[in-house]
Design brief:
With 232 residues, this protein is α+β, with helices and mostly antiparallel strands. The protein has a single domain, classed as Spore Coat Polysaccharide Biosynthesis Protein SpsA, Chain A. The protein has 9 helices and 10 strands. A hairpin with a 2-residue loop joins strand 9 and strand 10. Helix 1 packs antiparallel against helix 3. The longest helix is centred in the last third of the chain and has 23 residues. The N and C termini lie far apart (67 Å).
Length: 232
């Protein structure tokens, strides 16, 4: 049954309590949930892992889409991995990181997500990634993206802009300029999140004070203090 989104301040939203597969790791559920969200009628779905975040929430998604050349011809966009041997796939190509991706609601995307969810039974060799670490990520990097049916519809977003974090830039070259992903420093996620939220909130608060200065600011600079008294 299709669920009607709720509204908060004019924005609609849905919250899912994720089901689980009986034959593979829990991470696989995000693939099917992305497909179900598209089926709910959204034009775009932006997926981001729990240890990833937008570095500056004040930057509009539309601006990022333009920067990365994500157009109506782009069905699926995903961040690339660092240019390191450890992050290459079995063909020697830079891997793709499924901690951040953007899916556009169109038939080609639905087909791609179905193929991804079915990877262990669809592509020979993919079955070994049912539960191994980096399971659904490796499945996408090593099998789904090489399926000729999806040639030309997957856009790769630069690692330095949509992966990594500042402490890793020396080794990996990926600083997470717009999307920060703290894969090897998950303990930093909370601090970076607080920092990015404050970056977005403080300018808004400042604007509100400036716009409503006469009502919210009481000017007592012409008074003096003596003990527990304010002298006029």
């Amino acid at each position: 049954m299709k669920q009607t989104p709720a509204l908060i301040h004019g924005y609609d939203y849905l919250l899912y309590r994720s089901p689980r597969y009986s034959d593979r790791g829990a991470n696989w559920a995000k693939v099917q949930l992305t497909l179900e969200t598209l089926r709910a009628g959204y034009e775009w779905v932006v997926f981001i892992d729990s240890d990833a975040q937008f570095t500056n929430p004040g930057v509009p998604l539309e601006w990022l889409f333009n920067r990365w050349n994500l157009t109506h011809d782009t069905a699926f966009s995903i961040a690339e991995e660092p240019d390191l041997d450890r992050d290459r796939d079995r063909f020697g190509k830079r891997g793709l990181n499924t901690g951040f991706y953007v899916a556009r609601n169109e038939p080609r995307t639905h087909a791609l997500l179905r193929a991804w969810a079915e990877c262990p039974s669809r592509y020979p060799g993919c079955e070994e990634w049912r539960s191994r670490p980096l399971m659904e990520q490796t499945a996408f990097s090593e099998y789904v993206r090489y399926d000729g049916a999806f040639a030309g519809i997957i856009a790769v977003v630069p690692c330095n802009e949509a992966n990594g974090y500042p402490d890793a830039v020396g080794e990996t070259g990926c600083s997470g300029a717009f999307v920060r992903h703290t894969w090897l420093a998950k303990g930093q996620t909370k601090d970076w999140f607080a920092h990015s939220v404050m970056q977005a909130v403080v300018p808004q608060l400042h604007r509100l004070f400036v716009m409503d200065m006469e009502r919210v600011v009481i000017d007592w600079r012409d008074k003096t203090l003596k003990g527990s008294e304010m002298l006029g």
